[in-house]
Amino acid sequence: MIIDEIRLSGGQILRIARSRDAAPPIPGRFQIRSAAEVRQLLWGMRHDLAAETTLRSWYTFYLHGDVLRSFDQVIDGLAHAVENDVISLRRYIVGFSGRGIAQVAAEAGRLAGLEPPRDNTPIDFKDDNGRQVFAETPGHTAMKKPKKPEGNFFVDQGVSVKNAGLLRYDRFPLFVQGSLWDMQRVDGRVVQDFIDFATVAIGLYCASAEMEMREVLTRQNEYAILWSDFSKASLDKEYTHLPVRNVNNTVKGYALYASGSIRPTGGK
Amino acid sequence: MKIIKGAAWFSGAVILALIVIAGVVLFLGPALNAGCENTPISAAVSPDRLWSAAVVEAVCGDGALTTTVVDTVMLVPVNRSVAEGKAVFRVDTGGHVDERPSVKWVEPRTLLIEAFTSPYAQSVVTSYQGVTIRQAPRIAR
Lengths: 268, 141
Fold this sequence. Notes:
heterodimer, A: alpha+beta, B: alpha+beta, 2 domains, four-stranded mixed β-sheet, 9 strands
């Protein structure tokens, strides 16, 4: 696997992780000399699904671009946005041949030290005050979570990203199914007890990174319009392509952070 | 000659069918890739042994952030597979085991489905081929 790391003059870093054989042949480390080189670099990724997913995320989340645009337009938009800001490009090559975005994001996350401690023993999900968190269900079910990580892990991540001025959506692929921050899977299998917590964790991260909730849900909804079919699940009235449970749990994550029920570990 | 013409027609039909299937597969590509895992949860056979009611749970992921868990009650003639049955009731459980519907035959042609009354539950039909489907609300603890 390779990781291209584009540093921008504002201190931001755009990382693109993808399979090695899909990468265009460029030197391992060099200075970008022209806007044309940025455009050429991005163009080289147009047949790489993992890279396209990342670039589309940047385009929609960072530049607020229209998600329905063609990939050519996405590349043009991104190149135009960053061509005058790029100060360097580094390429890392690591021994990994996975192609999926989740695997690639997971490997990139491990490299960056973003892997949380994990203990998959199911326990009750309680807030920092020891109060049980309940699911929005007819049975008012007590929500479960893996023993580790704590909900605070995601708050810490959100706060650190915000404080560092990083692109907040840059770490979103870590939540993708099968990646490092996907809380609902153990050894690739869905654990139903953890489905609620997995979405609450996304809400905690986004809230603490000060990502606007409506924007997050709108972007998820736009993704679902293109790629998801939840027609048999109960759908939300406002975000009409997202399951209502998904929306409720994202909102719950925001609420737990906003109320101070789950805080940064430094703030305890 | 007739045989050759028939074979050519058949080959043409097969190729056309393959093109249509390929088109459907390509069109549904993302949904198929994401995929669902279907698991039988419970079943009950009618007293006259002509019908079976089966609860099937579908765990579906979209490959990104979301997983859904939906339980469907299928009404199936006993000599058919569940896939050939009729969906009569559906509930989005979100993975909460206590929200799974349960089925019980109260008469030879009356099926009782017990489930929470909630926005997540949806009655698809109330009768099907002479079978009446009734819902009994489950009371929250």
